[in-house]
Specification:
The chain has 2 domains: 88 residues; 213 residues, no CATH class. It is 75% helix and 2% strand. It contains 17 helices and 2 strands. The chain has a two-stranded antiparallel ribbon with strand order 1-2. Helix 10 packs across helix 16. It starts with a helix and ends with a helix.
């Protein structure tokens, strides 16, 4: 029994765990205490509570049973599943906080800047097979952050020290994008400009089928800024800094991914222009948080000291 206890690790929350827990808790509190109870608020509140508890559960399992499996679960599950659950339950929050679409303003900005809708202009001038390739690139959105994460997770000691900062930056890109979706909700050219688009996507059956798959998204008001662009820029930055060889592998498909957000009718040009700003903000915030809060270690002794101070 003594040996088993000595092998346990301290329970520690990383900065990404704290950010995810606080964000999900705030989302649940808004829905729970507002009182207007928009459709879907109950299910969304439960989902947000689950996300808030997720880092605590997996970090506790990691501390109790320290091995490579619990390490991988604590590392990857909360920052990957958490944002997906938050994204899938943004509708009630948007209905509550800002239900008015901003598409007219975004489309007007494009026309003022370029005189045309750039995505439509490009699509009509590209061969259908090129549009097919770009639609394939669009589907790689989640592939690149996962591959970089795995490289860092399995890497040398220098890369392991950078891993938490990378995960925190990834999480911040996603969450900052979600905040913007609530502040500037928009459904994008594929829906708002349907009368001007006229014909189906200028692609073969393959490209149209791929783009059609995204009509089943759990949240459609996710246009401004382009989350695909922001996360892709963050991945390129991280790969250049930490996995230079992998940067050259992903450069071309990532460039195609960014182009596809316009050509495949998902985003306005202003969305793509502003997308990298989420990556810049995430990088700056992640660096600041990582320097000031590398981890939050919790133990019985520390908790007892904290409670004794509060009791005074």
């Amino acid at each position: 029994m003594h040996t088993e206890r000595s092998e346990r690790l301290p329970f520690d929350l990383r900065p990404q765990d704290v950010v995810l827990t606080l964000t999900a808790t705030l989302c649940a509190a808004i829905l729970l205490f507002d009182g207007r109870h928009v459709p879907g608020w109950g299910e969304a509140t439960l989902a947000f509570v689950l996300v808030a508890l997720m880092p605590w559960f997996f970090r506790a399992a990691r501390a109790r049973w320290p091995n490579e499996i619990t390490r991988a679960l604590a590392t990857f599950i909360p920052p990957s599943m958490g944002p997906l659950l938050i994204y899938g339950n943004l509708d009630p929050l948007c209905d509550l906080l800002n239900p008015h679409l901003a598409d007219a303003r975004l489309a007007a900005v494009d026309l003022r800047l370029f005189g045309v809708h750039p995505g439509l202009w490009l699509e009509r001038r590209l061969p259908p097979h090129i549009v097919d390739v770009l639609s394939l690139c669009y589907t790689s959105y989640y592939v690149w952050p996962v591959t970089i994460g795995v490289i860092l997770f399995l890497g040398r000691e220098r890369l392991e020290r950078e891993f938490d900062r990378y995960i925190l930056g990834y999480l911040l890109v996603m969450l900052i994008s979600y905040v913007c979706y609530l502040l500037v909700p928009a459904i994008g050219p594929r829906f708002y400009l349907v009368d001007e688009l006229g014909a189906p996507l200028h692609a073969t059956w393959l490209g149209r089928e791929i783009v059609g798959m995204f009509r089943g998204s759990p949240y459609f008001r996710d246009c401004f800024p382009s989350g695909h662009t922001g996360l892709t820029v963050f991945c390129l930055y991280s790969a250049w800094r930490l996995a230079r060889r992998w940067f050259w592998v992903i450069l071309l498909p990532c460039t195609g991914l960014i182009a596809s957000t316009l050509v495949c009718r998902f985003h306005y040009a202003i969305d793509v222009i502003c997308g990298p700003l989420t990556a810049v903000a995430a990088i700056l915030i992640a660096d600041a948080l990582y320097q000031r809060m590398p981890s939050l270690e919790l133990s019985r002794e520390r908790l007892a000291m904290a409670f004794s101070r509060l009791a005074r």
